[in-house]
Amino acid sequence: MPFQCDVCRKDFATQQAFDVHMKNHVAGKKTYNCTVCDKKFLRPALLRQHLRTHTGEKPFQCNHCEKKFTQSGTLQSHIRTHTGEKPYECNLCEKKFKRAESLRRHFQSHTENKKPFECTHCGKRFAESSYLRVHIRLHTGEKPFECTVCNKTFASTSHLRFHVRTHSGEQKRSECTMCSKTFSHPQGLRYHLRAAHTGERPFECTECHKTFASTTNLSTHIKTHTGEKPFECTVCDKKFSQDAHLRVHFRMHTGEKPFECTHCQKKFTQSSHLRIHARTHTGEKPFECTACYKTFNSTSTLRSHVRLHTEEKPLECTVCHKKFSQDQALRAHLRTTHTGEKPFECTECHKRFSSTGALRSHLLHNHTTEKPFECNMCDKKFRQGHVLRAHIRTHTGEEPEVPFQCTACNKKFRARSEMLAHFVVHTGEKPFKCSVCNKGFMKASNLRQHVLTHTDEKPFECTSCPKKFVKKGDLLNHTRTHTGEKPFECTLCNKKFSIERALRRHLRTHTGERPFKCTECQKAFASASYLRIHLQTHTVEKKFECTHCEKKFAQKDNLLKHTRTHADT
C-alpha cells in the first residue's frame, strides 16, 4: 500500500521514503500564504500549484490529446489513460491500477474496517474522509465550488468539472453504440445501456431480492425497508429519503421553477418534467409497448398503459373497493361517483369539471376557434390530434389500428376501454348506479346525464329559443328545427333527416329489420318506441272499452281502429 503525506498529498512507495519526506514538514517552519484565499502552504512550490486553481493556468500539456493540466503529477496520471500503464500494484491480490489513489481505495477492500468514516447526521459510512466531507454537504447544503462562467455552485470539484464541460463543449464524450445518445460520463452511459437496451439489473436488494440497474437506485430502494428519511424540510418538517427529493419539494415553498421550455417558455420544478413536456413539441415518443407497439413520451405513461394488457389493477377505491389500473382513472372515479368534486374551472365561463380531459374538450368546443393540428397533404386544420390522424388516413388509405377485439361478436376497437364499454351490451351489466334512485347504467356518461334529471339542471341552452336540454346531443338535434338542416341522408331513397336515429328507423322500412322484440309474445318492432307502446298491451290497464262488443284496449287510437270494423259490418 502506498503512503501519502497528509500535508501535501504526495505519494510514496515505501515507509522509509515517506519518513524522509515528512521531515520537510517540521513544526514552526515558515508558511507561504495564498493572497487570494489565505490558504497556507509549507513550500513555495505547493503555493505555485495552488495559485493555478485561481488563475486557470495549465502549463502541463499531454502530447497525445493536447489536454492541459495544472500539475505534472496529474499529467502523468492522465498519460496512463493513453498508454494503459498501471504502475500501482496491490501486494495482496496483485491487481494493478493507474493511480495511487485508486490503489488506496482498493486496498481498503482487504481491511477489516472498510468504511471507518461515519456521517453523524445519517450514519452512512465511507472509506475515505474526503468522501465523508462531500457527503456532509448534502445535509448542510454547502456548495463551495463555483463555476466562473455561470456562477452555479457545487458540493464537489468533480461535479464542477462535469458541469464546466457544458460550457466548453466537452460534455458529450461517451456515445451509446445502439442509439447514438451521448453522455458526459462513462457511468451515465453504463446506466443508460442497462436501463434502455440490455435490461441488465445487476444490483440486488438482500431484503426482497428486487434488482436495479445502478447502485444509486438500490441505495434509494433500501430506504423503503429501513424507513430512513434523513433529509428534512426546514419549512414544513416533511422528511425525505433523498436529498434530491427534498430539493424538488422545497421548490413548492419557494415557487422556483428553474427548468424552462425553449419552445413555449413554460417552466417546471423538475428537469424530468421538462423533458417529458419537450416531447409534446418534438412529437418524440421513445417508449414502446411490446404488446401493441403503441408509443409514449414517458415511462410512467407506458407503465400505466401496459396494465391495460396485463389487466393488473393495483389501485383501489377506498370507498367502494373498485380497482383501477391507472391513477387518473381512480381519481376520476372518486370525483364522478363519490365526492362530486369538480376542481378544474374554465377561465372563460367558470364552469367546473371533474377531469382535465373534460375541461379541454369543453374549451375546444365552446371557447376556441384555434385549430393547431394541420394536415401536411391538404392544409386542412383540426382542433384535436386524433381527428387529424383519422383525416390523414383518407389520404393514405391506411386502415385504423384496432388491436382490441370483442370475444362475443368479434367487433374491433382502437382502445381497450372502448372494447370494455361495448362488452356490457352482451353481459347486460349496468355497473354505474344512481345514488338517488339506484337506477343502473352501462356507461358513466349515461349516469352523469341521468343525474341531471334529479337536479333539474339543463346546462345546454338553445340560442334561438329559451328551451334547455340535459344532453348536448339533444340540443344539437333541437337546433336543427330552427335551421332546417337535415344532414342524415338515406342512401337508398335520398330522403333526409335531422336526427340520426330517425334515419336508422327509416332504413328499417327498406331492410324490414325489426330488432326490438317483446319478451311476452315475441312480436318484433322496427323501433324501441313502438315496442314500448306495445308493452302497454301486456302491463297497462285496458280502460278503453268498445260499446259494441265490450272488447278493451290500452290505447284510444286502437279502440277507434277497432270501432271501424263494426261500422264496416
Name its key features.
alpha+beta; Double Stranded RNA Binding Domain; two-stranded antiparallel ribbon; 20 helices
Largest sheet: 2 strands, antiparallel
Number of helices: 20
Report the structural category. Answer: alpha+beta
Poorly predicted runs: none
CATH class of one domain: Alpha Beta
Tell the overall outline.
Answer: elongated
Average pLDDT, all residues: 77
End-to-end separation in angstroms reads 127 Å
Radius of gyration: 38 Å
Please give the CATH architecture of one domain: 2-Layer Sandwich
CATH topology group of one domain: Double Stranded RNA Binding Domain
Tell me the strand percentage band: 5-15%
| Biggest sheet, spatial arrangement of strands | 1-2
Instruction: Give helix % range.
Output: 40-55%
Subcellular location: Nucleus
GO molecular function: DNA-binding transcription repressor activity, RNA polymerase II-specific; RNA polymerase II cis-regulatory region sequence-specific DNA binding; zinc ion binding
GO cellular component, one term: nucleoplasm
Family: Belongs to the krueppel C2H2-type zinc-finger protein family.
